C-alpha cells in the first residue's frame, strides 16, 4: 500500500484470512501513520471525535488490530498481522488526513 497526501492506494482490497503482511510506503510529502480497524462501517463513515478532524479510535464500533506510526517520507514499513474474516478499514488518523481521503477498505475472506 502507498500513502500520499491525501490518499491511500492498496494493491488489493481483498486477502485471505490468516497471516497478512502489509507493506506501507510513504510517498509523502509528510509523515503518516496507518491504523487497521475491524468495523462494519464504510471507509468514509468512521465515527469522528468532537473536533471533527480525526477518527474516534475509542468508538465501540471500531476494533483496532494493528497500527504503525511515524512513517517518514520516502520510507517503507511492514506490519504483519493475523486477520480473521471480516471488513477492515485502513486509515491515517493524523489531524485532517482521514477527512482528506486517507482511508481504504480491506475485505478478509475465509
The CATH class: Mainly Beta
Class of secondary structure makeup: mainly beta
CATH superfamily: Cupredoxins -  blue copper proteins
Number of DSSP E strands: 9
Instruction: Report the C-alpha radius of gyration, rounded.
Output: 13 Å
Count up the helices.
0
Task: Give the tally of structural domains.
Answer: 1
SSE order, as H and E? EEEEEEEEE
* Sheet having the most strands: 5 strands, mixed
Strand content: over 45%
Widest β-sheet, arrangement of strands: 3-9-8-5-6
The shape is: globular
Q: What's the mean pLDDT score?
A: 96
Commentary on this structure:
This protein has a single domain (2-109), classed as Cupredoxins -  blue copper proteins (Immunoglobulin-like), CATH 2.60.40. 0% of the residues lie in helices and 50% in strands. The protein has no helices and nine strands. A hairpin with a 2-residue loop joins strand 1 and strand 2 (7-9). It is globular, with a radius of gyration of 13 Å. The protein starts with a strand and ends with a strand. The mean pLDDT is 96.
Write the layout of secondary structure elements.
Layout: E1 2-4, E2 7-9, E3 14-16, E4 18-26, E5 32-38, E6 63-71, E7 76-83, E8 86-91, E9 103-109
Short descriptors:
110 residues; mainly beta; Immunoglobulin-like; five-stranded mixed β-sheet; four-stranded mixed β-sheet; 0% helix; globular
